[in-house]
Design brief:
Blueprint: H1 5-9, E1 14-18, H2 26-35, E2 40-44, H3 50-57, E3 64-68, H4 73-81, E4 87-88, H5 94-103, E5 107-108, E6 110-111, H6 114-122, E7 127-130, H7 138-146, E8 153-156, H8 165-169, E9 177-179, H9 189-200
Parallel strand pairs: 1-2, 1-9, 2-3, 4-5, 6-7, 7-8
Helix pairs in contact: 2-3, 2-9
Catalytic activity: 2-dehydro-3-deoxy-6-phospho-D-gluconate = D-glyceraldehyde 3-phosphate + pyruvate
Keywords: Carbohydrate metabolism, Lyase, Schiff base
Subunit structure: Homotrimer.
């Protein structure tokens, strides 16, 4: 099923950002997150097992699985071939943006400044990841950036925690946040489900 990126962003307040080091736990991690109320899962293409993890997580009922850290059209194609239902990138280039728009896939490109957002608007995009959120100036920076672009909505990602997420989510231009804290390395499925439940109620 093809969603609009707005639907993906509004499914839950937190999108888990997953770095899969152990493919054997991919499916149970996805099951634990979905059980806890976080259905949208971003698997970063930072490990050799990422594409296989996307395939396995796609088997979990209710999961909406996408690929993150997509930096070029070839990676995007590989992610789509693996079954990704949305694409997230750390930044926005013309080749990747044009390929994503042409494919029709829900696309959340990374932005950190006004030029990035204007490039996205030129491609017809209005939903963006703000990355790296904390290092790029935090909430004051995003408030200043969002002001001239009232039509845009954001998913801040990078350095956000369970403690700081509510501060970000309090702003109308923030639809959700991305976070890795909901599935820490070495956590059991029960722990992940509990963290997901807490995140889903933010």
């Amino acid at each position: 099923m093809l969603y609009a990126i707005e639907d993906v962003m509004q499914t839950a307040p937190v999108i888990p950002v997953l770095v899969v080091d152990d493919i054997g736990h991919a499916r149970e991690t996805a099951e634990a997150l979905v059980e806890g109320g976080l259905k949208v899962l971003e698997v970063t293409l930072r490990t050799d097992d990422a594409l296989e993890a996307i395939k396995r997580m796609n088997l979990v009922p209710g999961a909406i699985v996408g690929a993150g850290t997509v930096t070029n059209p070839d990676q995007m194609k590989a992610a789509l071939d693996a079954g990704s239902e949305f694409i997230v990138s750390p930044g926005l280039t013309k080749p990747l943006g044009e390929a994503a728009v042409k494919s029709g896939i829900p696309f959340l490109p990374g932005t950190a400044n006004a030029g990035d957002i204007m490039r996205g608007l030129d491609l017809g995009l209005t939903h963006f990841k703000f990355f790296p959120a904390t290092a790029a100036g935090g909430i004051p920076a995003l408030k200043a950036l969002a002001a001239p672009f009232g039509q845009c909505k954001f998913c801040p990602t990078g350095g956000i925690s369970a403690e700081t997420a509510p501060e970000w989510l309090a702003h109308d231009f923030v639809y959700c946040v991305g976070g890795s804290w909901v599935a820490p390395s070495g956590a059991s499925p029960e722990q992940i489900s509990q963290l997901a439940r807490e995140a889903a109620t933010l």
